Amino acid sequence: MKNTEAKKMLLTLFPFLRWISDVKHTWKDDLFAGLTGAVVVLPQGVAFSMIAGMPPEYGLYTAMIPAVIAALFGSSKHLISGPTTAISLVIFASISKMAEPTTSHYIELTLLLTLMTGVFQFILGAARLGGLINFVSHSVVIGFTTGAAILIASSQLKHLFGLQYKNAAHFTDNIVLLIKNVHDFNPYSLMTAGVTLVIVLFVRKVRPKWPSMLFAMVGGAALAASMGWQAKGVKVVGALPSAVPHFAMPHFSMDAISALSGPAMAIAMLGLMEAVSIARSVALKSGQKIDGNQEFIGQGLSNFVGSLFSSYASSGSFTRSGVNYSAGAKSPFAAIFAAAWLMAILTFVVSYAAYLPISAMAAVILVVAYNLVDFHHIKTTFKLSKQDAGVMGVTFLATLFLELEFAIYVGALLSIGLYLNKTAQPKVLPRVPEVHSRQLVTDPFLPQCPQMGLIMIDGDLYFAAMSHVEENIARIQSFAPSQHKLLIICSSINEIDLTGVETLVHMVEEYRRNNKDIYFCGIKPQMLKLMERSGAVEEIGHDHIFDSKEQAIMTLVESLQTGICAECPHRVFWECDAKKATAKSTAKEKSFGLPQNGLLQS
Fold this sequence. Notes:
Layout: H1 2-13, H2 23-52, H3 56-62, H4 65-73, E1 81-82, H5 85-95, H6 104-126, H7 138-160, H8 171-181, H9 187-206, H10 212-227, H11 254-286, H12 292-307, E2 315-316, H13 318-326, H14 333-349, H15 358-372, H16 375-384, H17 386-401, H18 404-423, E3 427-433, E4 440-441, E5 452-458, H19 466-478, E6 485-489, H20 498-513, E7 517-521, H21 525-533, H22 536-540, E8 545-546, H23 549-558, H24 562-567, H25 576-591
Parallel strand pairs: 5-6, 6-7, 7-8
Antiparallel strand pairs: 1-2, 3-4, 3-5
Helix pairs in contact: 2-3, 2-5, 2-13, 2-14, 2-15, 4-12, 4-14, 5-11, 6-11, 6-12, 7-8, 7-15, 7-17, 7-18, 9-10, 9-15, 11-12, 11-13, 11-18, 16-17, 17-18
């Protein structure tokens, strides 16, 4: 028993022990999948670091260390972590207000932000709060990424045209700056970007599986170098430092920690949303089960450790994860191979990155931004759901016009608010038996019993819903004031809290003060258990709670006033026939002067 518990604890702390022994069978597939991933991330890492305002090599560092740690401590076999467009943009929007991009102070703040992000993510995972991501709708993510795509594109236009001005905080200001300075554009930068863009589109059309961005950037660099355009103002990346990330502790200060806490939490939530959603989407194809809490822990550790090795905030990469799965990866070791391949490639070709034109990278980033926009999902959402379209639209506008880290909160809070508003309004429906099938239905044209009403509650009863439930029951009962008995059908109630129980008891007491009564049927075990423990069953009365609606109707109809039943022109319940027959028999007995119990007097 102790050995079993120790083994379980060991697997919890070191989840890679579950699959590490399988590597001896899968290493060949993982090795080649890793090579493919390394080639794909090479241009991405450089491009994304530009978006983040970091020197180019930091995007490549982020594709190494975090990918290895996330693979070892996550739950997905195919998820690859590294730099992403959305997180890179949030970093730029958050840190550029505090320091000049690419400067040492900017890098220090970014690495501290990354460490804080990792801590937040790890705490959420350790607290088993992986289910929080389920409350953020896909429409929020689509709205945010669409807005981010526009922000990314607007920030790269100056590089596309070879212009020299400092980017503003908002995209509208960047457009204004572009218009003011466009007359000074460099035609050679624009031609380099144009050729790069054409190569990307051509390779994607002819050979979709080839690394189109890599070919395009090489093509743009070859064009600019062969034509000598660097001498004509086409700016290049310049020499990159060592390909091996170095260890360094982030610089701590209370002022910086205070200023970065908001962006760190926003990046933490955004990164977790990206990672878990990507892991789940790939798992649908691979048939693997994903542990959301373990992914939280894996992402948290990857950012925490990554910040110590010159990596900025990372998350799951949809492109690299998809490529990894398509390339035949069988285990998370493919991510480790990809990091090793990337380090090897950079060791031998890092000197050639100095000739990479910034305008060529800007063209590639424009393609990345375009790919962020999910036109199909946007069209479908506007067509099928006004509520989801509203959430998506608000998140999109918040991304464009508010502080970027708050845009995620706006969308998430709106999404959660609409969900809570929906759950806070459970359906409260009057029910009557259908004429032929006798099934209970909601039909205002069917006759109701003048003495007893039936109401079904469809939804959970918790503190936010009870006011709505009370008001609607009172409204329905106002249309039939003669009904002195009310049967509430509870078969569609799954959960109830203490406020819900107290409200039901209060309603029963209120009805009894008005010489009326409330009965319940179909209460589920978990709901009944809470009602018993709170004493509500004793206050309501055991005889007022029935197992089924059939039992409740049969018992309650029997207790109705026979005289009123005799005068009622309707046959609402099957039991009405017996009540009417009893009424007629009683009337005959009275007409012959017989005693009401039907026995002859001696």
